[in-house]
Design a protein that fits this description.
Blueprint: H1 3-6, H2 12-22, H3 28-33, H4 50-54, H5 60-75, H6 77-95, H7 97-116, H8 118-129, H9 135-147, H10 152-165, H11 170-180, H12 186-197, H13 210-216, E1 257-261, H14 269-273, E2 278-283, H15 297-313, E3 318-319, H16 328-338, E4 343-347, H17 353-357, H18 361-367, E5 371-375, H19 378-383, H20 391-404, H21 413-422
Parallel strand pairs: 1-2, 1-4, 2-3, 4-5
């Protein structure tokens, strides 16, 4: 089974299988070869775990625990850092929510400009259809559309060419990724595009060069010509000061609650471990809210399948097959009233499109006399408040401690057995 086929299997079991298959490569092999993009179907040097981690079918804590178990802390440090980058981006955006609002506002203006500017629309069409004439860029554009995945290094090259060579608005590129990447995540995607553009770390842009592309694609392409030799300066206001994070204490579990499953965290087992028991569960499909434009069918399919998989694992006596879209407040309130719920429980929704889409739900439930309990994972509680500066400040302050904690109880028994059987 190729990584592309694997990455389209939206279940926790598939994620655990991929984790088990990758673990032997997560040490020195990953550190040496992770930057090389050998092409579709040739990715033994990277994990391709991002679709499952993004939806938390498997989570960062258990991935780190599994890696440390096999390779130790030092042998696995580079891979653990890459896992923690996703945590860092999440925590940083949680403390700077206006950055997300600024991106969505600018995107709306850019999309409006497309309708009024034929020349911009033509350049955008060439970039998103793989017909710019830049061989490597066009290949990556088609690979993204066909598979829903790109190697991380290819994502950086792509973003750099989009911004500095094609001179297209970075927000449109970030939107293109968010609509087509199965692992499309508001924090990682938005902030990575900002980093390439020189907005995240002010004055530090990422400029893709022919030599670097040829070296790290194993010479798969003709040497790219016409790439920008100098990065343009993009004007934007400086990020605001971090907004301190304060999480409420976890509430006492209630044994007859309703579970609300959203695409940001599809691992309801951790709620059950806290003592929650669910009489009913409802999955909320908010994928369409990732963009004003149409979301790729493979993204919708994966998310919908992942929601159904999580429903089946929820332990709820009754799981709703209907997945609401549109008027979330009315539909979710009607579900809660139908089942005479006093409490609705869900995992924390980080800054992004799902949180935006469901913002009207919580006051509607409260107005109906239904309490809302939002659970934050211990991993996030410990990590996110430390994400106010750069990554390595976060890493030395908290990341190493997360990696060095005894997390063996979070390492799935089924994965331990599989890995043990390979020795």
């Amino acid at each position: 089974m190729t990584p592309e086929t694997d990455s389209r299997t939206p279940s926790r079991e598939a994620g655990l299988l991929q984790l088990s298959a990758f673990l032997p490569h997560a040490g020195n092999n990953y550190a040496r070869l992770r930057n090389i993009d050998y092409g579709p179907g040739e990715k033994p040097q990277v994990s391709t775990l991002s679709p499952w981690i993004r939806h938390r079918l498997i989570n960062e804590q258990e991935v780190v625990a599994a890696t440390v178990t096999v390779h130790g802390n030092r042998g696995a440090e580079k891979f653990i850092q890459e896992v923690c980058w996703r945590t860092y981006w999440k925590g940083w955006l949680e403390q700077h929510p206006s950055i997300w609002r600024g991106y969505t506002t600018a995107l709306e203006k850019n999309i409006e400009e497309i309708t009024n500017t034929p020349e911009l629309a033509q350049r955008l069409e060439a970039a998103t259809s793989g017909s710019t004439g830049i061989e490597c860029f066009d290949f990556w554009s088609r690979e993204l559309i066909d598979t829903g995945y790109l190697h991380n290094h290819a994502r950086m090259w792509f973003a750099s060419i989009w911004i500095f060579t094609l001179k297209l608005p970075w927000e449109l590129g970030a939107d293109f990724f968010l609509r087509y990447l199965i692992d499309g995540d508001a924090a990682s995607n938005t902030l990575s595009w900002r980093w390439v553009a020189g907005l995240q770390t002010r004055g530090k842009t990422y400029l893709a060069g022919p030599a670097n592309i040829m070296r790290y694609t194993n010479n798969r392409f003709s040497p790219p010509v016409g790439l920008a030799q100098k990065a343009i300066t993009i004007e934007a206001p400086s990020p605001p000061q971090p907004h301190p994070l304060e999480f409420e204490p976890q509430k006492r579990p209630y044994e007859d609650a309703g579970l609300l499953l959203c695409d940001e965290d599809l691992n309801p087992e951790f709620l059950c471990e806290q003592g929650w028991r669910f009489s009913t569960a409802l999955a909320v499909e908010a994928t369409a809210n990732r963009s004003i434009l149409q979301i790729a069918p493979h993204v919708t399919r994966f998310t919908r399948g992942a929601l159904k998989d999580a429903l089946a694992r929820s332990g709820a006596a009754e799981a709703e097959k209907h997945i609401p879209t549109g008027d979330y407040a009315a539909q979710i309130t009607a579900w809660a009233q139908k089942h005479k719920l006093r409490v609705v429980v869900l995992s924390y929704l980080p800054v992004g499109p799902t949180a935006d889409a469901l913002a009207s739900v919580w006051p509607a439930l409260e107005k109906a006399g239904i309490r809302v309990r939002i659970s934050v994972r211990d991993w996030d509680r410990r990590a996110w408040p430390a994400c106010e500066g750069g990554f390595f400040k976060f890493w030395h302050k908290v990341g190493k401690n997360l990696a060095n904690e005894d997390l063996s109880n979070r390492y799935p028994e089924s994965t331990r057995r599989r890995q043990a059987s390979k020795k």
